[in-house]
C-alpha cells in the first residue's frame, strides 16, 4: 500500500453535542474526536442521528448544546458557507444549465480564483475522479455514477481540509457502488484530507473507513475499526448491526468464571461471568458456527435445529437454522463442507470462547468481565 501524503485534513471535536426539536432529541450528548486526515464513517439506521451529526458539522443545523471544533476552533454559530468544507450529497446537486467544467469551477468562482488557476485546478480535480474528458458535457448527458464523480470533483477542487459525504452512493446500482467505494478510498488516500462519510450500509462502512462511529437513537454506541466492531462489539445493537449474527437467549447462570445459558432445554457455556441484575445474551458470528448431522463429533456447545433456508453464495453456502426455541441462527459454510437442504435436522456446534456475552438491549447496569 502506498503511504498517505502528509495529513492536510482538519481535526473535528464534538463535545457532548445535543440537538433537540421540541421534546425530541435528534442528538443526545454526542462526543467524538475525528483525527486529521482520518476517514470516519457515521453508521446507523434511519433516524439514528448520523445525518444530523453531519449537518451539524457542515453548519446546516445549529447545535442546541455542546461544543463543536474544526481544526481546534469553535464553529458554533459560523454559517455553512464560511466553514470552508466540501460536501457531497446523495442526489448530486449539479447545476443542469452548466457544463461539467463550470460546475466544478463554481466554488473557485465564488472564491475569486483567477481564470488560469481556476482552469488548472478544475482539470486536476476532474482527472482525479477520472472525468477529464467530460468537461464540456452537461449533467443530463452523464450517468448517475459520472454525475456523482463530478459532484466529488466540485467538492475537492478548492482543497478543503474537510470533506463531508452524505450517502453519496445510495442511488447507484450495486456493482457501480462497489467500484466507486474503491475510487473514494483511493482519492482519500491521495488527498490526505479528513473525510466524514454517512451511510446505513455496514458493508460500505467496513470497506471505506479507518474508524466507524455506530449511532443509535441519537447516541454513539461504539467507535472503532471495522475489525474491532465486528470482533468485539460493546453492545448487542452493535453486534447485530455490524455483520450477520446469531443471538441466543435463555436462562442464564454463572459460576464465577463462566456463564451457562439454557436454550430450550439445551445448555451452552461461554468463559465470561456476569454481575448485576440483567440477563445476558450470547452473540455468535456465522463463521464461528459449525453445522453437523445429529450425533457427529464437534465442539461441546451444541444446539439442535432445522434448516429453514439454504442459500448458495458461490464461495460457500449460507444457512438459516430454526432452533428449538423458535429463534433463527445464521451459519456460513465453505464449499468443501457438507451440503444441507430445507427441512434437514442438524446440530450447531461452537467453541464457547467464540461467543460474545453481552447485556440484553432491554437491560441496564450489567457488568461483563
What is the topological layout?
Blueprint: E1 12-21, E2 24-34, E3 39-43, H1 50-58, E4 65-70, E5 73-74, E6 86-88, H2 100-110, H3 115-128, H4 144-156, E7 162-166, H5 174-191, E8 194-199, H6 202-208, E9 211-216, E10 219-224, H7 226-231, H8 236-241, E11 246-248, E12 251-254, E13 259-263, E14 266-270, E15 274-275, E16 280-284, E17 290-292, E18 301-312, E19 316-323, E20 328-334, E21 345-350, E22 356-359, E23 367-368
Parallel strand pairs: 3-8, 3-9, 6-7, 7-8
Antiparallel strand pairs: 1-2, 1-4, 4-5, 9-10, 11-16, 12-13, 13-14, 15-23, 16-22, 17-21, 18-19, 18-21, 19-20
How would you describe this structure to a colleague?
A hairpin with a 4-residue loop joins strand 12 and strand 13. The chain has eight helices and 23 strands. The chain has two domains: 12-240, P-loop containing nucleotide triphosphate hydrolases (Rossmann fold, 3-Layer(aba) Sandwich), CATH 3.40.50.300; 245-368, Beta Barrel (OB fold (Dihydrolipoamide Acetyltransferase, E2P)). Helix 2 (100-110) packs across helix 3 (115-128), helix 2 runs parallel beside helix 4 and helix 3 (115-128) crosses helix 4. The protein has 369 residues and is of the alpha+beta class. The protein is 23% helix and 34% strand. It is elongated.
Amino acid at each position: 500500500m502506498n503511504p498517505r501524503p502528509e495529513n492536510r485534513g482538519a481535526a473535528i471535536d464534538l463535545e457532548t453535542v445535543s440537538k433537540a426539536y421540541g421534546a425530541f432529541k435528534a442528538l443526545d450528548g454526542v462526543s467524538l474526536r475525528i483525527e486529521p486526515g482520518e476517514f470516519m464513517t457515521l453508521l446507523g439506521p434511519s433516524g439514528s442521528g448520523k445525518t444530523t451529526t453531519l449537518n451539524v458539522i457542515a453548519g446546516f443545523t445549529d447545535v442546541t448544546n455542546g461544543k463543536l471544533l474544526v481544526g481546534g476552533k469553535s464553529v458554533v454559530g459560523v454559517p455553512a458557507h464560511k466553514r470552508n468544507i466540501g460536501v457531497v450529497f446523495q442526489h448530486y446537486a449539479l447545476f443542469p444549465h452548466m457544463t461539467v467544467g463550470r460546475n466544478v469551477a463554481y466554488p473557485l468562482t465564488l472564491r475569486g480564483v483567477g481564470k488560469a488557476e481556476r482552469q488548472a485546478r478544475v482539470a486536476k480535480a476532474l482527472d482525479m475522479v477520472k472525468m477529464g474528458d467530460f468537461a464540456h458535457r452537461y449533467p443530463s448527458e452523464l450517468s448517475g455514477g459520472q454525475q456523482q464523480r463530478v459532484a466529488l470533483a466540485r467538492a475537492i477542487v478548492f482543497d478543503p481540509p474537510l470533506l463531508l459525504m452524505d450517502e453519496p452512493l445510495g442511488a447507484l446500482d450495486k456493482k457501480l457502488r462497489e467500484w466507486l467505494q474503491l475510487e473514494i478510498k483511493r482519492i482519500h488516500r491521495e488527498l490526505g484530507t479528513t473525510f466524514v462519510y454517512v451511510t446505513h450500509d455496514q458493508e460500505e462502512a467496513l470497506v471505506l473507513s479507518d474508524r466507524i462511529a455506530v449511532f443509535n437513537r441519537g447516541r454513539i454506541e461504539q467507535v472503532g475499526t471495522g475489525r474491532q466492531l465486528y470482533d468485539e462489539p460493546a453492545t448487542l445493537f452493535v453486534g447485530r448491526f455490524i455483520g450477520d449474527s446469531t443471538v441466543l437467549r435463555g436462562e442464564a447462570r454463572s459460576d464465577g468464571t463462566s456463564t451457562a445459558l439454557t436454550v430450550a432445554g439445551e445448555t451452552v457455556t461461554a468463559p465470561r461471568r456476569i454481575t448485576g441484575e440483567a440477563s445476558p445474551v450470547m452473540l455468535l458470528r456465522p463463521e464461528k458456527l459449525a453445522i453437523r448431522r445429529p450425533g457427529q463429533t464437534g465442539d461441546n456447545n451444541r444446539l439442535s435445529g432445522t434448516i429453514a433456508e439454504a442459500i448458495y453464495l458461490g464461495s460457500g453456502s449460507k444457512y438459516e437454522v430454526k432452533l428449538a426455541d423458535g429463534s433463527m441462527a445464521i451459519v456460513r459454510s465453505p464449499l468443501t463442507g457438507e451440503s444441507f437442504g430445507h427441512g434437514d435436522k442438524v446440530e450447531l456446534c461452537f467453541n464457547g470462547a467464540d461467543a460474545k456475552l453481552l447485556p440484553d438491549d432491554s437491560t441496564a447496569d450489567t457488568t461483563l468481565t
